[in-house]
Amino acid sequence: MAKKIEDMAKFAKFCKDMGFIFQSSEIYGGINGFWDYGPLGVELKRNIKEAWWQDMVRNPPPGPDGQEIRMVGLDCAIIMNPKVWVASGHVGGFSDPMMDCKESKKRYRADQLMVVHASTAEFPIPRAGEPSDIAWAFPNGDEPAMKAAVKKLESYIKKHKIEANKVFKPLLSLGSPEVILAHVIGPDVDVPGTLTEPRAFNLMFESHAGPIASDENKVYLRPETAQGIFANYKNVLDSSRLKLPFGIAQVGKAFRNEINPRNFTFRSREFEQMEIEFFCHPDESMKWYQYWRDLRKKWYSTLGIQSGNLVPREQGKEELAHYSIGTTDIEYLFPFSDEPQELEGVAHRGNFDLSAHAKHSGKDLGYFDEEGWNALLQTRLEPFKDDKAKREEEKKKLEKEEKARFQFVPHVIEPSAGADRFTLAVLCEAYSEDSVPDAKGGTETRIVMRFHPRLAPIKAAIFPLVNKDGMDEAAKELYRELKPYFNVVYDQSGAIGRRYRRQDEAGTPFCITVDGDTMKDGTVTLRDRDTLKQERIPKGEVRARIEAALRAGT
Fold first, then answer.
1. φ and ψ at residue 480, rounded to 5 degrees
2. What's the DSSP call for residue 9?
3. Which stretches of 140-280 are assigned E, i.e. beta strand?
4. Could you give the angle at which helices 388-401 and 370-381 cross, rounded to 10 degrees?
């Protein structure tokens, strides 16, 4: 059985060594929450974004009633008028409860801190002289920190000869912070009482546009790409022939000043989103919500996330944002967590965003269903086609009594995916270690990245068996023929088995070897990364074989 990831630190080093992901500005000690994509990583992430754009924007599947879906793209500025973020609620409400540690100088999200303590004590009621009143805090999902906290508690229980079980609870569930914090030992410290009480911390990065760093020139790096779509909704509608339902899609950078970036690239301060805002009639919104929810889950499965690690979860009423009618989180069980973590949210946002921007901007962002109105007029005025006066009288009556229902603010369904999180999920899902035959008839362990061919950074590697007898020139010729269509590499260095292993680690689905028979009959050996099967095919069929593997849905 193939071995999966057991040590995230080891996996992160593998990603660095292979050129998938680097710590940003590492030569200066790095910067927490920011990452760079190396030669293989940038190809992988680009392939993910291009697959999403192709499958969701250029060629989406038919809608719930079999109709064609109309989608267009947008590329909005990262910095917008700050009034956008006032209208969206980000300036007033986009914050997390923050706690600082006065000793370690580290900062934590209070709602993500867990504690472990002995079951003999009932927090938050401290009892003088009770050693079990101490609790150890750790960030939720940080397994090393959790293990360290448990180890300290176990040592404490043993020292004080306490007979108790370990209890895990969210820190904020213990009661009043001013009562319980004096009895909580924060992460990375050894004494209680160093954590400050929670306070609101706005997650948007601030900057200034203009020569003077004043409040009048304050701007924000966008915390999401969605608001640029809403702000441009009317421009798109006026400049195109779109009719409801339709979607506007965007891929772009977003920034959040995360208090505690962690888990490799999963929670970062700079990240990329792949978002759709799908506008529809309020009466049809639940149908479209269900459509996008099911479609988005299926999409991940078509790209190699086929294990039980992929879990859709409908949010409970207590979790929903104040504007949300319904939200489904599509989650993935990453190796660093015991619980699935969000890859994408599919949210039914109602008409909150367009209504908020209409109110704050003073612009009419409603939609008039002209096709529906004209259809009603045609039906209701048909009996009066020969009586012009009666026809005009009935038309005015309809305009007074019926026309208003064709003017409405569309509802919005938002599938919002993280390009970086999905890249990390693809890397985790693809990674495996297995045993394969070696050149001496035994077995050896190899690392192989089992990327879906559509996502693989390198689609094929072309090798000459040896660098003589014209094989190297024939291999280079094949490489040049394929290069305009795919990202392929040419490699003539080292034993053929070693070259295979290098490409397995890069996740290359096909290796093509030019050998002596190629010079005789024009055939080459095509090796499959996953099955290790080798077959001879005509050189002229190589391109078609690769293209077949890259088709959507295969």
1. -65, -30
2. H
3. 166-170, 184-185, 199-202, 206-208, 218-220, 246-255, 270-280
4. 140
| From 242-246, 333-337, 425-429, 434-438, the region with the lowest mean pLDDT | 434-438
Name the E strands within 58-112. Answer: 70-73, 95-100, 107-109
**Residue 418: per-residue pLDDT:** 96
Written as one string, the DSSP assignment of 331-368 is EE--TT-SS-EEEEEEEEEETHHHHHHHHHH-----EE
Q: Give 127's pLDDT tier (boundaries 50, 70, 90).
A: very low
Above 60 in pLDDT, residue 1?
no
3-state secondary structure 496-538: HHHHHHHHHHHCCCEEEEECHHHHHHCEEEEEECCCCCEEEEE
List C-alpha distances in Å: 258 to 117, 205, 331, 550.
Answer: 27, 10, 20, 37
Amino acid symbol at 436: V
Which of 147-161, 164-178, 273-287, 358-372 has the highest average model confidence (pLDDT)? 273-287
Q: Please, are residues 236 and 248 in contact by the beta-carbon 8 Å criterion?
A: yes
Angle between helices 471-482 and 542-550 (to 10 degrees): 40
The neighbour count for residue 432, using CB atoms within 10 Å, is: 17
pLDDT above 60 (res 122):
no
- Dihedral sign computed on CA atoms, order 257, 20, 336, 454: positive
Q: Does the pLDDT at position 160 exceed 70?
A: yes
Pairing of the two strands 367-368 and 407-408: antiparallel
Element (H, E) at 435: strand 431-437
Tokens 């297995």 found at: 434
Burial 304-340 (b: 16+ CB within 10 A, else e): bbeeebbebeeeeeeeeeebbbbbbbbbbbbbbbeeb
Q: Is the pLDDT of residue 125 over 50?
A: no
- Under DSSP, the state recorded for 58 is I
Residue 130 has pLDDT above 60, yes or no: no
Task: Using CA atoms of 370, 374, 375, 378 in order, give the dihedral in degrees to the nearest 10.
Answer: 180
Per-residue pLDDT tens over the stretch 245-294: 999 999 999 999 887 788 899 999 999 999 999 999 999 999 999 999 99
In eight-state DSSP terms, residue 383 is: G
Q: Which tokens is 282 given?
A: 């309020």
- Cα separation, 457 vs 488, in Å, equals 9
Residue 550: which H helix or E strand, with range?
helix 542-550
State the Cα–Cα distance between residues 132 and 153, nearest whole angstrom.
Answer: 9
Residue 439 backbone class (left: φ over 0; alpha: ψ -120 to 50; beta: rest): alpha
**Amino acid occupying residue 549:** A
Query: CA 320 to CA 328: how far, in whole Å?
Result: 10
